[in-house]
Structure formats: structure tokens, C-alpha cells
Fold this sequence. Notes:
The protein is of the alpha+beta class.
Amino acid sequence: MITDTQNKSTLNPDVIIIPASRPEKHRCGLKGRRSIRVAAYCRVSTGDESQHTSYTMQKNFYTSMIKNKKGWRFANIYADEAISGTSRTNRKEFNRMIQDALGGKFDYIITKSISRFARNTIDTLDCVRQLKQLEPPVGIYFEKENIDTLDAAGELILTILSALAQDESRSISENIRWSLHKNFQSGKPQINLGRMLGYDKGENNKWVINKEQADIVRYIFTSFEKGMAANKIASELNAAHKYTVQGNIWRADSVYTVLQNEKYVGDLEMQKTVTENFLTHRSVENNGTEPKYYIKDHHSPIIDRELWEKVQELIKQSRTSNSSKRGAKASVFYNLYYIDRKGTEKNLARMMYKRTAAGYTDERALTEEEKPHFKESYSYAYPVWRGKDGKSNITLCECAIEQSFMEMLYYIKKNPSYICDKFINIYKNIHTNKEEYSVYDKPKLIEMQISHLEGIYKHSEDDVQKSNIKLRISGLKEELKAAEGGIYSENEMQNNFKLFMEYIDALPEHNEAGDSLCIYGIDKSQGNNYDYIPFDKLIYMKFIKKGIVIGDNIYYMTTFGAEIKSIGNLRKLNDFIGYKKTIDNKVQTITSPWQIYNNKIQYTRTKIK
């Protein structure tokens, strides 16, 4: 049958019209329905006392309203306290309510206003449409605005009002940001000391040092300064049942968070992070998008400024050297070189060697019943530095490099004139006057190196060493030709030398047991009763520009211009048997090579076929 509104001339005679058999159900609104299941949603966005009262009142009001309304049945009440409405992410009750609605547990949601429901237009409309498309649909009634989402005009009005609610949230966010900036400018921080290790809040908001927690902070800083890796510090703290302020285990990243927190030196930096936008509320690092505010000596420090600066320098240099280097070059010894047959400097490469832990056994060992059926082995890994020059190889154990470097530092400590005379000699020879300040230049420094190597060559009786030195001199002469005469500050040279000598003077003179250190190459003791000295990574990174391996020796070029030499770099693991070392917090004698690194012993067993 053709209706009056249809033009017969526009109809295709081949098209058969099938009339609708199930007309769309009339979706009347909340006021026109009876015997419906109603749920309520309440929310407040802050946790202060006044908002808590509002939160409680909302719950009580809607519970009573629904239960006393004729034709309504109380389905449930959902309430989020102290949660922002700009995002659904942390609104557990809201998300549970939507899931229950999709599961058909009620017919309507009633809430105070659009802003209580959500301050995000997209979230509001998305939920409304999702629930409206259900069969039967679930409606939402906003009491303040008198909007029923199942009414025909409801969505248009809702879109407009939701956008206004979102803009109101943006305005509130900007006001809060302005208030924070004013507080920062007046020196009022927004710090929750309950979430910070080492400090408690005292009277008048004063920062009070928590002694037990402060000891953990000091341990982290002093251990890192001595060269202990962050992951090792974390494992030591966990083993001692010392946890973070939130009660979590320590990890390398949480150790670095402590090491880089200026509050432990008594300073305060404000606005390190900013809120990405008012909808997500996600905090991101402030990389210059907002101003930062810094107060020096704001509160009592846990560590002294000297230690703080040493640790920051160590972190900085470590990241600088590791940022563009991988594998072997991530080690502090990435700047070690050898000289090939053509006189070219080449980097040594770091490799891991595997060795059987002879004589080691533990609870994993085979039982007498298992021995006929399995083979077992204990092994450990240790790092070496290698270079290849034709058919000959250069191989240095990393423990030998570290030990030789430390022995060299202690030689300087006991014989300061050795390095002082060198520095004075260099300073006198390369010191010139230009304009209004003194300078020394790169070509003269290279000439000093050549002169020094020529002296070694003259007195050497080792043919291989002489050959390597000759090639090194040849390479330096080529470098001298290409040098552009880069100028360096005289003050920088003096300051680096002064700081180096301060570090040398601060080296401990006793081992962990309180005994005077006995050092190879210095003390004339019987046997191998020497101390295995913990490696000071900071001194190496701060003052060593490069090292040239020539036979058993490494010649280090320092940041203050002087060249210093370590010996004993070709020692093998077995050469350190008999040395004294701290093992399990006790000074013990090294009886097996695997004890040098304190590495975990790997255990393998294979079935005998």
C-alpha cells in the first residue's frame, strides 16, 4: 500500500515493500515509567571534611529517595570519594556501575548533576549512548539540570551542558595551578613527607630527620660513592630487610631516585613535574614547560654537600660515558687503548671468560645415588680486556687493572712528591703568557708525552716494549702534526690537580678489620699477604682521560696534564690467591680465584646417556 506522501512515479515497480511488523517501542522517560530498578551515583572530588559531609549526605539522600518513591525499586548505590571526575581511570565505583548497567542489573541511574557524573564531555556522552543502545535501554537522570537521557531532546541539551562542565573543570585546574605557583614563589612546598624516606613532619610543618630512615639514605650515598652499583645496593638493602618508605623492595631505579633527590642535602626544588592536562591528570617531568623554584639550605640535611656533589658528578660522568657506548664501552675502562703494529691506537674490548670453580661445592651437589647418572660442574664468569695485534694477543684481567690502578694511587699517597714534581715540571714547561691570562696548549702537552716516552725507550731492555713505545711515539708525532693548538685554562689544570690530591689524601689507610693496608709494590711483606683494594670508580672517571697499555704497564693521561703509570696489569686470577679481601663482611684470605668477584657460582648438571 502506497501512502499519500509517496509519489507513485518515483517508485520502482520491481521493488516490493515489506511493512514493519515490530514497530519501535516507545521509550518513555523516567517520569513516565513504573516499577523500575533505580541505582544512584555519588561523587566528591576532594577529601576534606566538608566534602566528606557532602559525600555522606548524597548517599543517604538518594538511598532514602529511591526506597520511598512509589514504583521504584532500590538497585544499588555507587559512590567514589575524593576522586576527580575528569577521567574514568581511577573511578572504581563508576566503572563498576557501568558494568552492572551493561549486565542488566538496573533500569535507571539517578545522580545529582552532570558535573557529579563526569567533567569530561567525551566520557559523559560515551556512557549515555552506550547505555541508551541497550535493549531495554538504561537511562540516566541528572537531577539538577532536569535532563533525562531517554527523552528526545535530552542528548542535545546534555552535550551543551557537559561541555560547560568540562570547561568549568579546566577553569578550576588553572586556578589551582596559579595558586601552586604563588605558593612556590613564596617558598611554600607541596611535599608529602609521609611518602619521603628520611624525614617526618614535626610541629609547624618543620622537617624532622627520621634517624632510622636517614641511616638508609647515608648507606645508599656512601656505598655509591665507593663504587657499588645501584642494583648491588638494592640487593644489600633487601637482604638486610630494609625497605622503601612505602614498604616495597629496593630496585636500581629507586636507589637512583634517592641519589638524585636534592632534599637529602638540605635543598628543595619545586615543580619538578607538571600535570599534562586537566582531563588526564597525568604528571610528567617538567622539561621547561613550567618554571621551577629552588631553595638552598631549606631544611636540615642528611648528607653533607661534598658527598652530594661527588655522587652527582659520578652519576653525570657515568651516563655521559654510557650514553653513546654499549657492551664493553659501558665500563669505566672504555678509554683504554693499545698500539697496533702500524702505531694506531685501538680500543681494548671487554669479554667475559668462564672458568670452573675448582673445589667449590654446595647443597646443589649430586648425592651418592645420583652420581652414576649425572655429571655436574660449578663455574663462574669474570671480565677481561683484549686486543689483537696480528698474531699476538693482549689480555688483561679486569681485576688486575683495578688492583694496579689502586696500588698506583696508594703509591702516590705515600710518595706525593712523585706526582707533585711531575705536575710542577709540566706546569713550568708549558706555562706561557697570552693576553691577560696564562694558558697551556695541546701541542706542547703532546711534546711532553713524546719526551717522556723517549726517556722510557732509552732505558728499556725489553725489545717488545721498545717496539711498542716506538710505534706510540710515531703515533703521537702524527697527532702533533694534526693538532690545532686547542687552548685549556690554567685554572682548570690547577683545580683538577688540587682536587686529585684531596681524593688521594682521603683514601683509607686501614682495611675493614682495622689493620694497616699492606700494598703490593710498596710494602715489603713476606708471601702474598697483600690487601685486595676496593676499586674507586669515582677517581678513575673524574681524573683519567685515557690509558695506553704497553706490556705490563698502563700509562694514564690525567685531566691535570700529568701522566701516571700503573704496574702489574698482566697478573692473572691465581696471582691474587693469598691476598686479603672482605668476604661476607669479614676480612678473609683469597684461597680460590672465584672469590675475587664475589660472583654467584653457576651450577649445571647433565644426564649421562
